[in-house]
């Protein structure tokens, strides 16, 4: 299993197209300054306390948002990425 951690947005590359918000509104949120941010509870939405994936459809929505991002500014936080066998 690969735990992806959580997505991060490079705001310097973001073109504010809102595609990520449309595809995955539970994870990508437009804040009061009209910038996109990642929900603080995204890991709790994806994984249980043992790191097991509990919401595969949400994970696929995040992957779709990353693939379709016009600014190519969304990636996985490598600091939280873990691999287990």
From TrEMBL:
Keyword annotations of the record: Iron, Iron-sulfur, Metal-binding
Protein species of origin: Desulfamplus magnetovallimortis
SUPFAM superfamilies recorded: 4Fe-4S ferredoxins
Cross-referenced InterPro entries: 4Fe4S_Fe-S-bd (IPR017896), 4Fe4S_Fe_S_CS (IPR017900)
GO function term, MF aspect, one: iron-sulfur cluster binding
Domain 4Fe-4S ferredoxin-type per the UniProt entry, residue ranges: 5-34
Name of the featured protein: Ferredoxin (4Fe-4S iron-sulfur cluster binding protein)
Species classification: Bacteria, Pseudomonadati, Thermodesulfobacteriota, Desulfobacteria, Desulfobacterales
């Amino acid at each position: 299993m690969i735990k992806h951690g959580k997505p991060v947005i490079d705001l310097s590359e973001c073109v504010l197209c809102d595609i990520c918000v449309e595809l995955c509104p539970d994870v990508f949120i437009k804040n009061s300054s009209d910038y996109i941010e990642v929900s603080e509870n995204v890991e709790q939405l994806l994984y249980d306390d043992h790191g097991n994936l509990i919401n595969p459809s949400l994970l696929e929505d995040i992957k779709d948002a990353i693939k379709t991002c016009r600014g190519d500014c969304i990636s996985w936080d490598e600091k939280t990425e873990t691999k287990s066998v």
